[in-house]
What does this fold into?
Amino acid sequence: MKNKIRIIFWSMLAAIALSACMPAMSVRVEFDDSINKYNKFLSSQSFDAAGFFASESIAKEFSARVKAAKNIKVVDRRILRIQYDEENGTAQVEVEIDYYSLSSYRMKTLLDLQKWAYVTENGFKRWRLMSLLPEFL
It folds into this structure.
């Protein structure tokens, strides 16, 4: 009987401990999902769709950069480094992007420093891009 009570007690304690960690883990999972989707949109030249992740404060400028990138084709992208600050709800992602312009067909590489923040918009918390689409020169 004592062993049964111990098993139930430790099982409940483990369940409580795991559920206490879930909000923090889901924020990180949501972040990983956001950066992966955003960067896949860049890879597929879906710059308009990538704009969904832009913060409201940069939406207009982001849209202008999308228009300027209409002749850009992304060949490859690599996430080099992620600096994740759980305490402040911020992150910085370094992405290397290989691309070419339809007017030159010469491949170039740029380093995109993406700044992200976990913000509340319309009553919901979500990860938003705080930096603009890179300038493809």
